[in-house]
Amino acid sequence: MKYLITGGAGFIGTNFIYYMLENHPEYEYVCLDKLTYAGNLANLQKAMEYKNFRFVKGDIADRKFVFDLFEQERFDVVVNFAAESHVDRSIETPDVFLVTNVLGTQVLLDASRKFGVKRFHQISTDEVYGDLPLDRPELKFKETDNLRPSSPYSASKASADLLTLAYYRTYGLPVTISRCSNNYGPYQFPEKLIPLMIINALNDKELPVYGTGQNVRDWIYVTDHCEAVDIILQKGKEGEIYNIGGNCEKKNIDVVRTILEKLGKPESLIKFVKDRPGHDLRYAMDTSKMKEEFGWEPKVSFEKGVEKTIEWYLNNEQWWKEIINGEYLEYYRRMY
Ligand code: NAD
Ligand code: TDX
C-alpha cells in the first residue's frame, strides 16, 4: 500500500507521519508539501531516515504537477492534511485559503479519480459546523448537522467537504471525511493559542487573550487525532463523515491560566486584546459515532497533554526560535 500524505511538513501531518511510520511500517509513504510559512522540512528529518518514506515539494493546487506525481507513483490512499489553517490569517487574506483548501482539494480529488485511488481521506474540522452558544452545554455538533461556517477559513474547509462528498455521490470516488476539534502538541506553529502562550510565557512576554477569554474550544492531543484517522482509514465506510474530539471543553482563559501555572509564571502576563472578528463562541463534538462503531476514545488527558507539550517546547527551543523571526515577527506585530 502506498500512501500520499499532503501537508505532512505541518503540525498534524508531521505527527501523523511519525504515527504511521511507527504503527504501520509495512506501508510506503510519500509526503507532498508546498512548504509554506507553516511547513517545516526540519520536522521530517527523522522520517527521512526511513526507507519507506519520501518527501516531495509541491503545491496541491498545481494540477499538472499533481497529475504527473499520481501517474508516476500510483497511490492507493490519499490523506489530505494540506491547507491554510489559521483563522486570523484567513480574515486578513482569504484568497490563498480558497486556492489551497478548495481548488487544491479539487485537484487531488480529480487526480484520485483518474488514477484509481482506493481511499481519499479529507482532514476537516469542527469549525465547518459554525459555533454553539455558551449557555447550552447540552448541545454538541453531530455529523448530520448543517454546515454554518463563520470565517473564510472554515468556509473554505466546508467547501472542500462538500466537494469531497459530491465526488463520492457523482463519480463513486471512495472517500471518507474526519472533522476534528482543536489539536495541540509537538510541532504546532506558534501562531496557534497553546504554543503562542507557552512561548510568550517562556519569554516573559504578554499573553494576548481575545475578547473576554470566555470562548470555549474542545482540545485534543494530536496523537489521539492521528490514531482516530488511522482507524477510519482501516475501518471507515466510504461516503461517511466522522467527528473526532477530545471531550475536553475549556474556556480560553482557563487554558492560558493552566499554562502559566505549569510554567510558574504570573497571571499579570495576561493581556485582554481586541476580539477576533466573527469569533466563534463554542465548539463541542459529539464523538459517539467513533466510539460506537470503532470503540475509539481520546486517551491523553488535558493535564498530561499540556505537560507533554510544554516539555516538547522546552526541549526544542531551537525549533521555535528559528520560526519566531522574519515573516512570523511581521505577522505578530500586525496582529498584536
Ligand atoms: P499547518 O498549518 O500546521 O500545516 C499545513 C501544512 O500544509 C504545511 O506544512 C503547509 O506547508 C502545507 N500546505 C499549505 N498549502 C499547501 C499547498 N497548496 N500544497 C501543499 N502543501 C500545502 O496545519 P495543521 O494545524 O497541521 O492542520 C492540518 C490539517 O488539519 C488542515 O487541513 C486543517 O484544516 C486540519 N485541522 C486542524 C486542526 C488544528 O487544530 N490544527 C483541527 C482540525 C482540523
Ligand atoms: O492570540 C490568541 N489569543 C486568543 O485568545 C490566539 C492565536 C487565539 N486566541 C483564541 C481564539 C480561539 O478562541 O484561542 C482560541 C484558539 O485559537 P486558535 O489556536 O487560533 O484556533 P481556532 O481558531 O480555534 O482554530 C483551530 O482549531 C480548528 C485551528 O487553527 C484550525 O486549523 C482548526 O480547524
Explain what the structure shows.
There is one protein chain. α1 links the parallel β1 and β2. With 336 residues, the chain is of the alpha/beta class. 43% of the residues lie in helices and 17% in strands. The protein has a seven-stranded parallel beta sheet with strand order 3-2-1-4-5-6-10, sandwiched between helices. It has a three-stranded mixed beta sheet with strand order 7-9-11. Strands 8-12 form a two-stranded parallel ribbon. It has twelve helices and twelve strands. It has a domain at 2-183 and 220-244: NAD(P)-binding Rossmann-like Domain (Rossmann fold). The chain binds nicotinamide-adenine-dinucleotide (NAD) and thymidine-5'-diphospho-beta-D-xylose.
What features would you highlight for this structure?
single chain, 336 residues, alpha/beta, Rossmann fold, seven-stranded parallel sheet, three-stranded mixed sheet, binds nicotinamide-adenine-dinucleotide, binds thymidine-5'-diphospho-beta-D-xylose, lyase, NAD, dTDP-glucose 4,6-dehydratase, NAD(P)-bd_dom_sf, NAD(P)-bd_dom
